[in-house]
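Module 6 notes. Inverse folding takes a fixed backbone as the condition and produces residue identities as the prediction. Think of it as a translation problem where the source language is geometry and the target language is the twenty amino acids. Below is one complete input and output pair. Work through it position by position during the lab.
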């Protein structure tokens, strides 16, 4: 943890500067008005060429059960990601990333069912050729994993080089997540920031 501050919004330039240094913000709870800044000694990443999903998720993708859109309901995706018993996504975080989204550096991947209901999704931050995955949610079974598959497709197609998950977890390991040292992460981040990539379909 680096520091803590109380504010209504984190300026986009402050967020981008933090991400460029491997630092990210989190609140203690949904109703917390303060923000803490973190970095990790061991960092989770998903190497582009090691991403994977289960055969069941592959089958759902082939069936076309969900359709994909990006950046059409960014704030709603964030709110749904925050809708759980314990969360680090506060109103300060939502408002700050919403402004960052309007500045073109925060993105949502959204899954819709046949009735056009938002079934699942994720959001993250792009800077250079790095994508910092923040959180994901599902209202329908496997919709979050399908969103992750679409996210990988977008990142790979547009030449992103670093997919940061912040922390390694057993849940993320099923998608190819690995843990690397802070030193290796800094090297990969520096390289990715020297290149430009657009998060687009």
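Target side of the pair, the amino acids:
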């Amino acid at each position: 943890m680096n520091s803590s501050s109380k504010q209504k919004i984190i300026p986009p330039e402050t967020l981008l500067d933090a991400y460029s240094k491997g630092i990210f913000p989190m609140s203690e709870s949904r109703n917390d008005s303060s923000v803490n800044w973190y970095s990790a000694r061991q960092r989770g990443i998903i190497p582009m060429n090691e991403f994977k999903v289960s055969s069941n998720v592959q089958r759902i993708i082939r069936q076309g059960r969900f359709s994909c859109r990006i950046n059409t309901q960014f704030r709603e995706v964030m709110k749904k990601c925050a809708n759980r018993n314990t969360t680090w996504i506060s109103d300060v975080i939502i408002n700050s990333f919403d402004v960052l989204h309007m500045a073109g550096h925060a993105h949502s991947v959204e899954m819709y069912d046949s009735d056009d209901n938002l079934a699942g999704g994720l959001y993250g931050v792009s800077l250079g050729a790095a994508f910092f995955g923040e959180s994901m949610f599902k209202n329908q079974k496997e919709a979050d994993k399908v969103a992750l598959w679409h996210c990988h497709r977008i990142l790979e197609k547009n030449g992103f080089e670093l997919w940061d998950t912040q922390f390694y977890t057993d849940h993320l390991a099923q998608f190819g997540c690995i843990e690397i040292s802070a030193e290796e992460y800094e090297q990969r981040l520096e390289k990715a920031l020297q290149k430009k990539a657009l998060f687009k379909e």
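Reference fact for the lab report: The first strand starts at residue 4 and ends at 6.
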